[in-house]
Design goal:
This protein is 38% helix and 33% strand. With 190 residues, it is an alpha+beta fold. A seven-stranded mixed β-sheet has the order 1-4-5-6-7-2-3. Strand 6 and strand 7 form a beta hairpin.
C-alpha cells in the first residue's frame, strides 16, 4: 500500500510539475515573439493634378471587371457593355477626340463594329490604386485586330481606365501604337 501511495504521489507531482513547466515555457515563447509590424503603403509615382497622390498595386477584382468589359466588346454585346459603364463615361481617343456619355459611346461603337469588326486581345494588365484618394484604375496593353475593306489590320492600344466604387467603367484613355510592316527579305539584302 505504501508503494501504491508513493507511485500516486510521484505521478501527481509529475503532472503538476509538467503543467507548471509547460506554462512557463509558453510564457517564455510568447515573450520571444516580436510584435507584428503594420506597414503603411507609401506608394510611388505622381499625378500632377493631385500632387500628394501616390499609387500602389490594386485589386485583381478591378482587372476582372476590365476583362469582362473587353469580352463584351469582343462579343459586340452592346447591352453588356453599357451595363458595365457609367452614364457619364468619358473616353479620350488616340486622335485626341472625346466621347462623353453612354449614348454617344453606343453610337460610336455601333459604327466601329459595323465598319471594322474590331477584336481586342489583352496581352498584359495591371490594376493600381491611389493611396490617398483610393481610386482604382487599370492599365493594360491590347492587340487590336480590325478588318478594313477586307484587309486585316493590327495595332496596339495602351488603355488607362478608371473603375468607380460601384465597379463601373467611368473613364479611359486610349494610346495607340501602329505595328510596322515586316521587312521583306529583298529589302533587308539591299
Amino acid at each position: 500500500m505504501k508503494k501504491f501511495k508513493l507511485i500516486i504521489t510521484v505521478a501527481v507531482l509529475a503532472v503538476i510539475s509538467y503543467s507548471c513547466n509547460n506554462s512557463a515555457v509558453e510564457r517564455m515563447v510568447d515573450k520571444m515573439q516580436p510584435e507584428p509590424v503594420v506597414l503603411e503603403q507609401e506608394g510611388a509615382g505622381f499625378f500632377v493634378n493631385q500632387p500628394d497622390e501616390k499609387f500602389v498595386v490594386g485589386s485583381d477584382d478591378v482587372m476582372d471587371i476590365w476583362m469582362k468589359y473587353i469580352d463584351a466588346h469582343n462579343n459586340q454585346d452592346m447591352e453588356a457593355i453599357l451595363a458595365m459603364e457609367t452614364d457619364s463615361i468619358f473616353i479620350l481617343s488616340p486622335d485626341g477626340s472625346t466621347i462623353r456619355g453612354k449614348e454617344n459611346h453606343k453610337a460610336a461603337l455601333s459604327a466601329w463594329f459595323e465598319a471594322a469588326n474590331p477584336k481586342w486581345n489583352v496581352y498584359w494588365g495591371m490594376p493600381y490604386k491611389g493611396v490617398t484618394g483610393g481610386e482604382e484604375w487599370i492599365i493594360a496593353g491590347h492587340l487590336v485586330t480590325q478588318t478594313i475593306d477586307g484587309v486585316e489590320v493590327k495595332h496596339r492600344d495602351m488603355i488607362d481606365g478608371y473603375i468607380n466604387d460601384d465597379g463601373l467603367v467611368s473613364m479611359f484613355y486610349v494610346y495607340k501604337s501602329e505595328i510596322p510592316a515586316p521587312v521583306s527579305e529583298e529589302a533587308s539584302e539591299e
